[in-house]
Amino acid sequence: MPLYEHIYLARQDVTSQQVEALTETLKGIIEAHGGKVSKVEYWGVKSLAYRIRKNRKAHFTLMNIDAAPAALAEMERQMRINEDVLRFMTIRVEELEEGQSVMLQKRDRDDRDERGPGNDRGFGGGRGGDRDRGDRGSRGPSGRAPRPRSDDSFADEAHS
Q1: Rounded Cα–Cα distance for residues 51 and 58 (Å)
Q2: What pLDDT score was predicted for residue 132?
Q3: Residues pairing with 65 in the sheet
Q4: Could you report how far apart the first and last alpha carbons of the chain are, in Å?
Q5: 61: which DSSP letter?
Q6: For 134, which DSSP code?
Q7: Fewer CB atoms < 10 Å away: N or C end of the chain?
Q8: What is the DSSP pairing of strand 36-52 with strand 85-93?
């Protein structure tokens, strides 16, 4: 059977328990048609790039599916009917990704960075003017890099 990665976006005003129930319903549709869902990842509520049906955020969920095209068509039909689903996308892949997806790896990395000992990301510290600039030198009192000046003595030698 073909392999698919399926992502759907649910409205932001539904609870995460409702999203999990919707995921279980979709998983049941796939399994009723002889398919199998090998992985389900809930990515959480994320901001959208643009408004979709008056929503600025949505619950994101990824499903790895091994099913016949008829099972996928039925699941997508049910998703079109459901008013809580804003968008969905199904992509056929050659093989399913094992382990965490890139989105979950990124979230784990971001969580570590925010609470780690070397948190110098510049949050709350203004524009970061007190950070070490390395070999670039100081910006000076105005906050701008000093402008190079023309050497007046060199200009006097050129005219004499």
Answers
A1: 10
A2: 60
A3: 4, 37
A4: 89
A5: E
A6: G
A7: C
A8: unpaired
Q: Give the span between the Cα atoms of 35 and 1, in whole angstroms.
A: 8
Q: From CA 157, how far away is CA 155, in angstroms rounded?
A: 6
**Which stretches of the chain drop beneath a pLDDT of 50?**
123, 125
Distance CA 121, CA 19 (A): 33
Name the residue ranges covered by the structural domains of the chain. 3-95
In single-letter form, the type of residue at position 16 comes to S
Q: Taking a C-beta distance cutoff of 8 angstroms, is the pair 10, 58 a contact?
A: yes
Residue whose pair of structure tokens reads 């709350």 in the numeric block: 124
Which residues are bridge partners to 90 per DSSP? Answer: 6
**pLDDT value at position 118?**
56
DSSP string, 26-47: HHHHHHHTT-EEEEEEEEEEEE
Joined tokens for residue 121: 């990301």
What is the model's pLDDT at position 70? Answer: 93
Whole-angstrom distance, CA of residue 140 vs CA of residue 148: 13
Q: Please tell me the predicted confidence (pLDDT) of residue 117.
A: 60
If you search the block for the tokens 């509520």, which residue do you land on? 45
Q: Which residues share a beta bridge with 52?
A: 55
